[in-house]
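I hope you will forgive my troubling you with a question about protein structure. I set the record out below, with my sincere thanks for your time.
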Amino acid sequence: MNVETPPILLREERAGVVTLTLNRPGARNALSRGLMAALIEALDELDADQTARVVIIAGAGPGFCAGHDLREIRAEPGRAAYEALFAQCSKLMLRIQTLRQPVIAQVHGVASAAGCQLAATCDLAVADPGARFATPGVNIGLFCSTPMVALTRAVGRKAAMRMLLTGEMLDADAALSTGLVSHVSAPGALAAETAALAARIAAKSPLTLAIGKRAFYEQAEMPVRDAYEHASAVMTTNMLARDAEEGVDAFLEKRDPVWEGR
């Protein structure tokens, strides 16, 4: 009897919020080549989906994501395979950053190595009180160089270097204090609080969210004078949008705005 293999990525949509769930619980949701390909494909589809306002990335089973699939990596050693793997991972992280919609990581259990990178890359991250974060590659002779890119852009340099050099676990409260996560939920309320946050964001103008997210990452890489010049140009363009006119008028008229996404 053939047993149907469950999909490695689950998708659920509710009121404009799309949840993508990593579904390799037996492997602690390790980022296999197949799972990364599925995520990239899903994100590409969502970028063109005008009904999708916010994306949540979650993990099935006991943890969020354990990083790369080391068994898969060791099964195919060699420079070409490694280069392809890390290029694919970089493509995934950049796709999250360039996605039109805000992306929220919903983290429980352990987020380690590339799993920590995934959480750090998302625009926001909500952590369960028992969640833990680590870049432990140094413990097995493999410095977490690609996770380092996202980590150093999410937390202070000293905090990032401690994680990278020691491989130690960071608990949820420490992750919050360093800026690795944006919120720690109440016990047992991770999914509910993440959904509530997503719903609040989804109620905003989708055009404004897209403009703001893109500008945020663009200005973050610029010298401050260039950043202000760029942000001023973005604000001008934004002000000319129909949603901005509607938002200002609604505020002045003391009513709820009706977004058109243009």
